[in-house]
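Fold this sequence, please.
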Amino acid sequence: MKIEILTKSENVDVQNAIISQIGNLINSKNLEPGDKLPSERMLSEKFDVSRSNVREAIQKLEFYGILKSIPQSGTFVANIGATAMDGMIEDILRLDDPDFKSLVETRILLELKTSRLAALRRTDEDLKQMKLALDAYSKKALNGEDAVQEDLLFHLAIAKASGNSTMNTFMLIITPEIITNFETHHVCDKNLATQGIKEHQEIYDAIKNQNPTLAKEKMKEHFSVLYQYCYSI
């Protein structure tokens, strides 16, 4: 069994190499939609990499709809044409890690929409989860503690309350990178966190009162400081 300890950059390079090799394998074997790929173990041996690296590459290709894994059955080529698949693999290999500004812009666009939808669709259980996150954030902020994770849990609760599974998934995907960047750039200092309590409460109240226009406006106000900070670094 091959065991590797890689840096993030090295892991991405290995993952991309595996993705490229899987694409070549599909073409060389003339695999059609619905055809089964070799097992993770076989691919690991063929490409001389660890099974975990193969698994991560397959998961990435699954995310983009190129492969489909079925429990107890294996991994199969998805129902897309060869030309489209080749083009998509090339695009995946060209993808860069999102920079901080891109993450902020994406997050703001998503959350202006999710806050509005949450006000229209939220349930009592959604409100309960938002309130728990808000209280946890407030407690840490008032104690001068780092509340980045509690802040994002509040926003994730809003995304879930939007009732839009795609938006919720996007938020879950970008959240780990957001946490890392916030901590790196020291975005949420004590003063901003304390102000955030008031802003979070206003967003929560607008959603609770099912006022989509106000919820979106309060979310926009909440992000104004972050947006200005992002473009000052």
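The chain has two domains: 8-94, 100-230. The chain is about 75% helix and 5% strand.
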